[in-house]
Known about the structure:
DNA-binding, Rossmann fold
Amino acid sequence: MSISINDVADAAGVSKSTVSRVIAGGSVSSEVRARVEAAIRQTGYRPNLQARRLRSRHTGIVGVIVADIRNPFFTALIGAVEEAAYRAGLRVTLCNTDEDPEREALYLQLMQEERVSGLIFAPTRTTIGCLDGLPQDFPAVLVDRAGAGGRHDAVVLDNAAATTTLVSHLVERGYRRIGGVFGSTSNTASERRDGYLAAMQAHGLAADYREVAPQAEAAEDAVGQWLRGPTAPEAILASNSLLTMGTLRAARSVGLRIPDDLALAGFDNERWTELVAPGITVIEQPVEDMGRAAVALMLDRMRAPDLAVRRLVLSGRCIVRGSTDART
Amino acid sequence: MSISINDVADAAGVSKSTVSRVIAGGSVSSEVRARVEAAIRQTGYRPNLQARRLRSRHTGIVGVIVADIRNPFFTALIGAVEEAAYRAGLRVTLCNTDEDPEREALYLQLMQEERVSGLIFAPTRTTIGCLDGLPQDFPAVLVDRAGAGGRHDAVVLDNAAATTTLVSHLVERGYRRIGGVFGSTSNTASERRDGYLAAMQAHGLAADYREVAPQAEAAEDAVGQWLRGPTAPEAILASNSLLTMGTLRAARSVGLRIPDDLALAGFDNERWTELVAPGITVIEQPVEDMGRAAVALMLDRMRAPDLAVRRLVLSGRCIVRGSTDART
DNA sequence: CTGAAAGCGCTTACAG
DNA sequence: CTGAAAGCGCTTACAG
Lengths: 328, 328
């Protein structure tokens, strides 16, 4: 069937050990090396990675499990992780859970069966609790989503600070009835919700919020109802760009103008947030840094499994645009 | 180190053949099956997929190579492929080439070394030519991008029809100086360019276009210059959503209003194209169907390698919005 | 239904 | 520098 190292060895008139050494860049006489390289070319030999990984007992694969590949934040994160992993000579294998804890459990098992060298994971809140099921020596790094005081390395945004910034900004602009739309599945959304609640309380304002599946449709439905009802807020803070989009669509379909009838602020500086009129005020996350940092933490952990658990907290940057600008 | 099938066999007091049978769902007495299952649970055993794949000589992995994971078209495609593959009991491994032929060559090799069961690939134009380097028995399906009369199965859009529709629509709306912005790396972009040229000629109009790297920044720069110059068009047709976005940004920065100063039409019905004011006229691609169809073609090819080459051409749907509406 | 043996394609000590 | 042997963790005929 497929050409194996034995075929190359035969063609070159050497042992397969020697072929293996040539491929691995071990010490081989230049004359033999040339012969083997010619044989490789001639036979069209491609090493079988399954065999190599089995024998060498490490795969050089980093598993990445994200919650929603259609969320541009995760796409950007994946891109950054991929690049950093590639530089470190690691391959990436990607899984998408669609925020489903069952699929998370499945993929977590699969990653172990793949014997990945490391794992980068953005879990749902449900799964964060049962991460202790992972073997001790499994180099896993949480990214974007982590509990406080977990057993694993993590890279997260300073969500409390970010929401405080957003709420303060809205209050400064004169808004009082500030509502929130938060994802219901992630710890990150909960942290943003708690930050919102704390900030509202600090300003002596009454809080009101909705928790929905972190997708545009869910936000559009929930916010649409809300905006049509008697408790409609005059400003909304949304916890990710999909929810921001859904909120915007809801406002449009109800016929509210932004920012005059409804102010809007959210997370993630997606290009479209700048293109709509008015632009949307957002917290920009250092997503490239987050991806790179996750890989760096993972590499450290692979080298030194006994390192103390590290938690990297990065700051967002507030970009003010017209969507929160009615009162100036 | 890691727990192997032998440990389970020892714990259950059976041979590893029997353990293997239990896992594979072979015929085993219920008493023995129960003992083995208990041993699996007790030891925390996870089968080593590298070993399984090596021995069974097929991986059950479908490789997916796309040009740009940040292009929402590809993200949606990946999602659809993943789902269809998952249903067929296949795993997906994903590679992102960033439109770089060198990385394409690298990943193509890697896919062979991984011994993937099948490949779904959106190649650059450069690479389409040297796809014959793939082994005959390699079940590869091209998606979104394919040459005419290639050796591989393919799923593509009817690009000629789509651009003809767009040009006719613009002409109908009274536009005459219709320019184009096309990606420079893909065959699909070339087909759209050729469709544009043919349609313009059929209408007796002079064509003018730019070819750029298929990213927003490149389009923004090129179109910005163009719009400031003496040959500025009154309408622009862009060959993907990133280019549409760049064109829109360029128009904004030059201070042109859409559609009064510049009409705009593009590809891919991304959510933001509906959210900006005015909305953007686009060709919507049946991207989910494309992903599913690619997997279906691949499965057929895996089962029957000698099947005649098939090329599936799907139609886009034109969604007219305000961006092409100045004259009505 | 169950087990012993062979072998998938490599790498890794161990000799020479 | 080179090769023969062992073995990574499985599955797959082959016996019984």
